Amino acid sequence: MITCFGKTVAPMGFFGAAKKQTDEHMTSYGSHISVIFQVWGSKWPTVFPYCLFNVCVMVILSFVDSHFDGKYSVDVSTQGHGFLTLVVAFLLVSRVNTGLTRYESARDSIGVMYRECRELVQNVCVFTELVQRGAHHDRSQWEDGMRVPIRMAYLLRKTICSQAGRLAEPMAISHENKLLTFAHCFEVFLITYGFMGLEVVAMDLDNPFGDDPNDFDNSALACTAYEDTYLTILDIDGDEWMNKLRFRVHGQEGDCPFPDEKTSLLSSTV
């Protein structure tokens, strides 16, 4: 898998049909063709120069071998080449698995952080209501319970784990020695694409925080916590205090600077 996960880390879907929406881009993981040839967040610009360089080297070696009738050639031991390929593939897959583990750990941590923020606000509101009992309208126990569970983080884990199989599958390498020149070039291109692509993906997974297309959309995740807090304040203290809090957080705009489908879903269900 050369394309890492999308920028917005709250997919609205399940296995094989996950979709992630940023401000201007939609990434769908329901199709292998869509993942391979997408532009936003793709690692093709980074991997393609390496593929092109190795193909050029292969073309030169093939030309020298055919033009000089095998007088000048570069031979690699079959045993050593096979052993080295096995070792590199094992180390690279292990590196990607390590990066994926760190990515999931970071995602779990940020999910816990925002969940704790919501629970802190909810606990403050609950205890404030107990202290000032009678100042607001009573709420039923069912209405309180509807605001506690947040399933975004758990749906995210399902989606990320559903993509792990793409990294675990080893790349098939042909050992046929009697192939045409373009077949060798195509093989070199695919091998470089696979090895360098996995390395670049592992580098992205190691650092999921920042402004890159494949990093966590921390601003959008924060907006979901903001909106949940606003709904809690709205139910406790009314529209006036909710607007005051919204103005203090977002300034004159008075709204989340990164609205998306998650906040709409949250507002409609809570």
Written description of the protein model:
Pfam families: Bestrophin_2. This is Bestrophin homolog. This protein is an all-alpha fold. It has a domain at 19-115 and 139-217. The protein is 64% helix and 2% strand. The protein has helices at residues 32-37, 44-67, 78-131, 141-145, 152-162, 164-168, 181-206, 218-237, 239-250, 261-269, and strands at 19-21, 26-28. Strands 1-2 form a two-stranded antiparallel sheet. A hairpin with a 4-residue loop joins strand 1 and strand 2. Helix 3 (78-131) packs antiparallel against helix 5 (152-162). Mean pLDDT is 68; it is low at 1-22, 174-179 and 258-270.
C-alpha Rg (nearest Å): 26 Å
Task: Report the helical percentage.
Answer: 55-70%
Strand order of the largest sheet: 1-2
What is the strand content?
A: under 5%
Order of helices and strands, N to C? EEHHHHHHHHHH
Q: Unreliable stretches, pLDDT < 50, 5 or more residues?
A: 1-22, 174-179, 258-270
Structural class: mainly alpha
| Gap between N and C termini | 36 Å
Average pLDDT over all residues? 68
Query: Number of DSSP strands?
Result: 2
Contiguous helical run count: 10
The main β sheet shows up as: 2 strands, antiparallel
Overall, the morphology is: elongated
Keywords: Cell membrane, Ion transport, Membrane, Transmembrane, Transmembrane helix, Transport
Membrane topology: Multi-pass membrane protein
InterPro entries: YneE/VCCN1/2-like (IPR044669)
Subcellular location: Cell membrane
Question: Which terms would index this structure?
Answer:
single chain, 270 residues, mainly alpha, two-stranded antiparallel sheet, 10 helices, 2 strands, disordered N terminus, ion transport, cell membrane
